[in-house]
Amino acid sequence: IHVDWSALGRDSTRLGYTGKAMADLLSKQGEDVDLTIGIEKAGAPLATTVAAELDTDLGTYTPRKHQWNEGDIEDLGGTFSRNFAQIRDRDCYLVDDTITSGTTMTEAIEGIREQGGEPVACCVLVDKQGVEEIEGVPVYSLLRVIRVGNGT
């Protein structure tokens, strides 16, 4: 299932409204959260609007699947951009566009913990699997894909 959310992404006003809705889902999840991490590529603009709404710093995480060349993905880990806020033992929110299997979100959660941070909650536009938590971190979504019928 591919989710085309370009009608939101290509318009800054719509993207801002979407970020406000995502921020609303996260707003009651932690009092000491002062950092929002966007998962590159599509999660970064969403995280920017969430961070503005919640008045947090902004960081980005590039998962290893976005950094590899043929045959070397096993040797790479994800990275946090030095151009944005750093983890430094902070509580944070994670933002992405879609959860398909949960692998990227799991990798980001582990990366945050390796940096000494604590992910408090995750938020996505679309959850394709009905994920309620990953690695003990609650996941909130604006939309959830639900299969109906027997698929035949």
Enumerate how many helices there are, as a single number: 4
Radius of gyration: 15 Å
Q: Please write the string of helix (H) and strand (E) elements.
A: HHEHEEEHEEE
Q: Tell me the number of strands.
A: 7
Tell me the strand order in the biggest sheet: 3-2-1-4-5-7-6
**Biggest sheet character:** 7 strands, mixed
Percent strand equals 25-35%
| SS content category | alpha/beta
Roughly how much helix do the residues carry, as a percent range? Answer: 25-40%
Q: Low-confidence segments, ≥5 residues, pLDDT <50?
A: none
The averaged pLDDT comes out at 87
Amino- and carboxy-terminal Cα gap: 16 Å
- The coarse overall form would be globular
Give an overview of the whole structure.
- With 152 residues, the chain is an alpha/beta fold.
- The protein is 28% helix and 28% strand.
- It contains 4 helices and 7 strands.
- It has helices at 6-9, 12-26, 43-54, 103-114, and strands spanning 35-39, 57-62, 79-80, 91-99, 118-127, 133-134, 137-144.
- Strands 3-2-1-4-5-7-6 form a 7-stranded mixed sheet, with helices on both faces.
- A hairpin with a 2-residue loop joins strand 6 and strand 7 (137-144).
- Helix 2 crosses helix 3 (43-54).
- It is globular, with a radius of gyration of 15 Å.
- The protein starts with 5 loop residues before the first helix and ends in an 8-residue tail after the last strand.
- 36% of the residues are buried.
- The mean pLDDT is 87.
